[in-house]
């Protein structure tokens, strides 16, 4: 995965959006408890991440980097045991550690949940429950109910001021853990409504654990561009509010496929196979944009 992160097109995207960006290098990467040698595999997990983080920092990436716990994100204890040392190893000391609370058979009772979240508090690192859900995958998608577990997790997280993100808003293989039926707020499911309206931990709670509105500030409108049509057939055009100097097309691995310095109203992509690409556009205002292009 690291060659993709270190590709120039991705680095440009990070630079463009760094003011409000957190990157997660590998979702739920690695196994530790689920192996025959947990200690050795935890060391490998730590060393691989430290190397990856150092390589990103050497390329000028200073944004927060989120690290998921191993074992499908579940193993918070194992992650937290190495987290302080990883913060020290990071040249920017700018890491966030995330556990995914699919805790059936890991921490499914109140005392066990309290222990896990106490460990998070005691570690003195930035920690978040990166996924909380109402079902967990077992023999099939969402076959294990967490209906009695996730409320305990959120109540205990609330009491410790630990932030959380819920899975998922829509389009999941388990309809039971969808917050909406079609992606619209007015179609909240019972699970979604609980996450929003629960008087203790819901987003609208007024008891101290509700969501806080982000601050706003006035900004000068930035230059904009549009790729049209997108998805494209044999050609596409670039429209924007600044003069364009150059456009470069990359594949998703960051390999440069095409570069043009004129004719931005009809860029030929006949030679490209169907799929996804990144188009990087440079303007006379020394602004670099990157947008995804789909080729039919």
Distance between the termini: 26 Å
Biggest beta-sheet profile: 5 strands, parallel
CATH T-level fold name of the largest domain:
TIM Barrel
Q: Give the overall average pLDDT.
A: 93
CATH superfamily of the largest domain: Glycosidases
Instruction: Please give the share of residues in helix.
Output: 25-40%
CATH class bucket of the largest domain: Alpha Beta
The spatial strand order of the largest sheet comes to: 1-2-3-4-7
Report the portion of residues in β strands.
15-25%
DSSP, total strands: 14
Can you tell me the residue ranges where pLDDT is under 50 for at least 5 consecutive residues?
none
Order of helices and strands: HHEHEHEHEEEHEHEEEEEEE
Shape: globular
Under the CATH scheme, the architecture of the largest domain is Alpha-Beta Barrel
Please compute the radius of gyration using only Cα atoms: 22 Å
């Amino acid at each position: 995965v690291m060659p993709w992160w270190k590709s120039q097109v991705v680095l440009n995207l990070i630079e463009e959006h760094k003011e409000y960006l957190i990157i997660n290098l590998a979702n739920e990467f690695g196994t530790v408890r689920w192996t025959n040698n947990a200690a050795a595999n935890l060391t490998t997990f730590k060393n691989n991440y430290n190397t990856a983080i150092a390589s990103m920092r050497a390329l000028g990436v200073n944004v927060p980097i989120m690290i998921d716990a191993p074992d499908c994100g579940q193993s918070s204890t194992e992650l937290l045991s190495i987290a302080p040392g990883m913060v020290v190893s990071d040249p920017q000391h700018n890491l966030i550690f995330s556990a995914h609370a699919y805790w059936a058979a890991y921490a499914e009772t109140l005392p066990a949940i309290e222990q896990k979240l106490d460990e998070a508090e005691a570690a003195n690192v930035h920690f978040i429950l990166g996924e909380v859900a109402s079902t967990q995958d077992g023999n099939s998608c969402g076959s294990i109910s967490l209906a009695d577990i996730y409320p305990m997790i959120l109540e205990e997280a609330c009491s410790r001021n630990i932030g959380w993100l819920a899975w998922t808003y829509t389009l999941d293989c388990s309809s039971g853990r969808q917050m909406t039926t079609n992606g619209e707020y007015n179609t909240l499911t019972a699970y979604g409504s609980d996450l929003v309206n629960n008087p203790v931990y819901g987003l609208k709670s007024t008891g101290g654990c509700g969501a806080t509105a982000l601050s706003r500030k006035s900004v000068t409108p930035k230059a904009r561009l549009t790729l049209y049509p997108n998805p494209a057939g044999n050609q596409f055009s670039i429209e924007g509010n600044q003069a364009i100097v150059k456009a470069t097309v990359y594949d998703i691995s960051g390999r440069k496929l095409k570069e043009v310095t004129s004719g931005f109203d009809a860029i030929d992509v006949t030679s490209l196979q169907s799929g996804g690409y990144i188009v990087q556009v440079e303007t006379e205002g020394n602004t670099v944009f990157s947008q995804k292009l789909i080729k039919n």
